[in-house]
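Sample pair:
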Amino acid sequence: MGIHRVIGVLGGMGPAATVEFFRRLVVATPATIDQDHLRILIDNDPTVPDRTRAILHNGPSPEPALVNMARRLQGAGAEVLAVPCNTAHVYLDAIRKGVTARVVDMIAETAASVGEEAAGLLATSATINARLYHRACEERGIRLILPSEDGQRTVVRAIEAIKASRSFAEVEAAIARVIAGLQKRGAKAVVAGCTELSLLDGASMTLRWVDALDCLVEATIREAFREDAGS
């Protein structure tokens, strides 16, 4: 299939989302034999300080750990870096400054995939507070609709439940109720802006499910097979 770049994954935020990203990346790669697949290096480091605690509660910053992880991956041969954690994109500029490898912007890729005039957002409170999707959607003329206070608490509890490997059926029912509220307020699609939420069955929801993890997979494969990959 020709030359392709080596992929590095800044993982562990959380581990289940990292595993799912790896799985989807393998499934989506246009390959017919082992040798057609991408070389993928994964640093699954769950000791990275909590992003939400850092952003909202002045906790330890994950920035040094993320930059060091990116450098480790680049040192091991990675040429394209993917970060399957939406909230970690608060530190995207610092990661990019710390390496020469290309770093995929999952937020921008996801916003570019919305294709609607109004979209609901399901994300951590830190991602919302940092206005990551606000900026990306505003640049594309998309009106972003956030859950109510009660709805956001439900989203946060859902993310925590997924990290703790609790019942997905209960989580999906709770998220479906939040989406129904977003739909009533004019949302035409909903962004799954937390990679834990990517583990849910988006096809069962009443709004089109724009999955940030799928967008990251697509962009990572695109970067891996760019024509100038050998330069």
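DSSP finds ten helices and eight strands in the chain.
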